[in-house]
Write a structure and sequence with these properties.
Layout lengths: L4 E2 L2 H34 L5 H22 L4 H5 L2 E5 L8 H17 L1 H8 L6 H6 L1 E5 L6
Antiparallel strand pairs: 1-3, 2-3
Length: about 140
Amino acid sequence: MTVAERAGVGRRLGSLLYEALVILALGIFLFLLPLAVFSGVSHILLGPGLLWFYLFALLGVYFVWCWVKAGQTLAMKTWRLYVVDAQTGQTLRPLQALVRYGMGWICWPTGLALLWSLVDPDRQFLHDRIAGSRIVYVPKVRY
């Protein structure tokens, strides 16, 4: 059996770049396309606040569902990363995943996530520290 180890910052940032491509695809097919159809059919333009809420909720469903059900998103799967409870090593509880997601919206745009990882003794991002989560790497098993 393979044992999980701490994921390095470089591997986590690589996964984050790949995640940006997944988010772009989700944005096109589940945000822009339905919005264009809705606006074209109803001739109603939604306000920016409602659009931001829709985007926040849409991405929240994707991330929270992936973290709670499998412990990883598509990008994390490619990089063999899992997000787990820092204390138990189990998949995140729904509230824990929601806290991680919500804090990510504050920590990443402000740069706090990455800056915190430079001073954190475990090199964890700030939103992981707040949510009590940890990203681990599971190496490929070789026989």
